[in-house]
Amino acid sequence: MDTFDYIIVGAGSAGSVLANRLSKDGETSICVLEAGGLDWHPFIHIPAGFIKTFYDDRVNWNYSMEPGAWTGGRRIHAPRGKTLGGSSSINGHIYNRGQHLDFDTWAQHGNHGWGFADVLPYFRRMERRIGDGDDTYRGREGELVVTDIDWRHPLCDAFIEGAVQHGIPRNPDYNGSVQEGVAYAQRTIFRGRRVSASRVFLRPAMKRKNLHVRIRAHATEILLEGKRATGVRYRVGGRDGALQEIRARREVILSGGTYNSPQLLQLSGIGPPPLLASLGIEVKHALAGVGENLRDHYAPRFVARVKNID
Questions:
Q1: 82 within 8 A of 36, measured Cβ to Cβ
Q2: CA dihedral 265, 266, 267, 270 (to 10 degrees)
């Protein structure tokens, strides 16, 4: 059985960064398990290609939400990346940091080290901002290139002006000291290509001998010894492949994303006991919040008929 210092489940936005940073010393052994395949698809790298990858089963889990009263009984499409880079390889390129208040609230609730002032140095370290911005908040020497949209449309200009007239201020940098306001989006596109986490964090690190990336490795269970995670069971070649196990000397890092991380915890017996019992899963650690209170970013679309653009 293969043993590594760290096992990372998911080669997405977070997993790619972790693989890069943890393997940097050239000695710490890392194994990354990614359920999807290589990020070779040309539509991943062409900025407009996300219109295709949003629905492409080859690089997308293409989940659907359960119908509910708040969605009018509809199933809402929930795309998630299934390739190296994860959702950073299929998303709409928008770069928008979380609200300062959210981080500070986490810290106030006992998650020390997660206040905005604590995480800001890491935002700056990973970013290479090309454009205006206060260097107190923006990074200039990191890997993730963040640029401004290089076109302006009269309708967009009119929308921004309308927002200003209704009291919403222009914000030249919503990733700076103040986030509220209206602005053109900042994006992870550079010289006509997508800047995914795979492209700038994972792929450069894959040249290191101490980093091992296994694609089409579908994790099915976190292996536990008591309350400690010691390894991962996964299927080789996809969901129908043979089962295999690997072990971790130090840590198992779960970075499967908003949907897949809690799912894997539940499959491993970590979660709400009533739910696990209903699925015939042995409860190894009762944790009521796992899989509850999902809040992924909403994206409503508004279509309006305008009389003119004057």
A1: yes
A2: 70
- Do 160 and 201 have their domain in common? no
Residue 13, C-beta contacts closer than 8 angstroms, at least 6 positions apart: 85, 86, 87, 88, 197
Q: How far apart are the first and last CA of the chain?
A: 69
Q: SS3 for 48?
A: helix
Each of the 310 residues of the chain gets a pLDDT tens digit; together they read 899 999 999 999 999 999 999 999 999 999 999 999 999 999 999 999 999 999 999 999 999 988 989 889 999 899 999 999 999 999 999 999 999 999 999 999 999 999 999 999 999 999 999 999 999 999 999 999 999 998 898 889 999 999 999 999 999 999 999 999 999 999 999 999 999 999 999 999 999 999 999 999 999 999 999 999 999 999 999 888 999 999 999 999 999 999 999 999 999 999 999 999 999 999 999 999 999 988 777 777 788 887 776 6
Inside any domain, residue 291 = no
Determine the residue type at 115. G
Within this chain, do residues 108 and 64 fall inside the same structural domain, yes or no? no
Asked if 202 and 182 sit in the same domain, the reply is no
What residues have CB less than 8 Å from 128, skipping those under 6 apart?
139, 140, 141, 142, 143, 144, 145, 146
The residue type found at 249 is R
Q: What is the dihedral of CA 6, 11, 14, 20, to 10 degrees?
A: 60
